[in-house]
């Protein structure tokens, strides 16, 4: 693996991958993909989900020597693509994953001169919906694969690539597809790219994801609004009841107050992995609030190793058109992000007990229409993790940041639990990318580093 010929060929593959960027081809390909409004939560764009597969993905995979199959499921908003290239059954088999769907564009919220489905460059960043999540990321991986094939003539390993068009819909059929086609998806390891790096300038791998579940609270007191002067002090105020319900669950500095919603302790190897991790911001990011969150933990531990319970929305009355009246109801949606070690079946009962203990029986916990993701984490000391670290260090001259899991949520548990795979995520984005919001963007520096990292990783996989 380390002889001069191998090194020269590896360097050539990385150079060919970088030429995708230097020649302008990468930008052209990504702009074409961004221009397709593949919004999975809007039924009007269902044809775009199919078109992304048939017009964009399948021709490219076939060009690279993959066999392609479209898989469908009634619960999914769009099709899945399984692209397979089997070179030698005795060689390792890698499963890769990405998604081509995006969230809604909200064009009215973007900065002047920027538009969600017209990619544009500003300050060496490409702006457009999907540049960071996830079209830009799987475009990096595909360009790197193409470079290795061009130089070596083969991958040197077997590759199965699963692309879905419903991740932003909550991946409602991914588990069913993986169970139904488990034999076709069998592999030795999952290598995928989604989510952000730890920071803009720090190549990162993470091994899983925190779980995510929503908790809907509601107080229904009566019909209609009632004058606050005539009825104040006589009628219970749902807004006040809701405020106390939230305060019973979350402390004044953001600490989750229910032990059942936390892992209880941070494993020693997780704490060791995060020992030198420092959360940093870049231009355009909000300033951090070091006083916020679970006490006694570092900021990295709060994001990657502990639970956070956040208020996403509160609705009571009409602040835009005030009636100066006691409202009839109040609603709130809370979101729990949690690592491995939380019993999700115990979450709602624990919330109910705390509300009852506080005399807040009228606050109801409603069913959540949102998809939830379980927490998952691969072995921090596993051989595939060591392999990925060594490969990236060989390319970049320094080891990557290794996170036990992403702070957000991904359908990683489907790959670890349903398919039984070790999972390694190599993200090509960063926390300030504005994914899911206005002005989503992808820095060209991350694309450049991502092409180097992935071409080197794919090359090394062919020699292991």
TrEMBL record:
Q: Which SUPFAM superfamilies match?
A: Zn-dependent exopeptidases
The Peptidase M20 dimerisation domain covers 208-358
Q: Which UniProt keywords apply?
A: Hydrolase, Metal-binding, Protease
**Keyword Metal-binding belongs to the record:** yes
- Tell whether Oxidoreductase is among the UniProt keywords: no
What name does the UniProt record give this protein?
M20 family metallopeptidase
Record organism = Paracoccus rhizosphaerae
